[in-house]
Amino acid sequence: MANDKVTNILIVGVGGQGTILASRILAYLAQEDGYDVKVSEIHGMAQRGGSVTTQVRMGKKVYSPLISEGKADIILAFERLEALRSMHYLKKGGIMIVNDQAIEPVPVIMGLQKYPDDIIGRIKAKIPDAIAIDALNIARDCGNDKASNVVLMGVLARKMGYEWDQCMKAIEAKVPAKFLELNKQAFEKGWNAEV
Hints:
- This protein is of the alpha/beta class.
- The chain has one domain: Pyruvate-ferredoxin oxidoreductase, PFOR, domain III (Pyruvate-ferredoxin Oxidoreductase, domain 3), CATH 3.40.920.10.
- It is 39% helix and 23% strand.
- It is built from eight helices and six strands, in the order E-H-E-E-E-H-E-H-H-E-H-H-H-H.
- The protein has a six-stranded mixed β-sheet with strand order 2-3-1-4-5-6, sandwiched between helices.
- The radius of gyration is 16 Å and the shape is globular.
- The relative contact order is 0.16.
- The model has no long low-confidence stretch (mean pLDDT 91).
């Protein structure tokens, strides 16, 4: 990341997926590098499985926490439909990392709407370099579905060029001790994922 440039990262998901922890790890990494960081969290009935959006902006000086449409350098999507909904925020040439997991929203559960077909294919049609990873199954292999957020952080941190030791320090600072080893393992699997 160039010192004079602001990097915009949009994290999208569903309530309970750990988007907030992911944004805190990311903010910690940026602050440790000496960057100004602004974070904005938007919760849409998050406790009931609604959309959650976190905007993280980092750079030499950041004046606002909000990312405009078409200005996100990176979108980290914890769920397929949320990825599809947020694509218009990604700038041309930006990076999109998608957890290939479906969580049906309330209208779909109630039978009022249909969950869209072939979301990953639709995303890749517009963003050919989009990365799709089954973070849920990787987390499951580590022993806890909820660690998929840290699997995704492993992919993101490596893509952003962070050092391994920096990342471990951030995880140790932000993850409760009783979940630390699980999350380190999940992060490592994301970091080493062939994407």
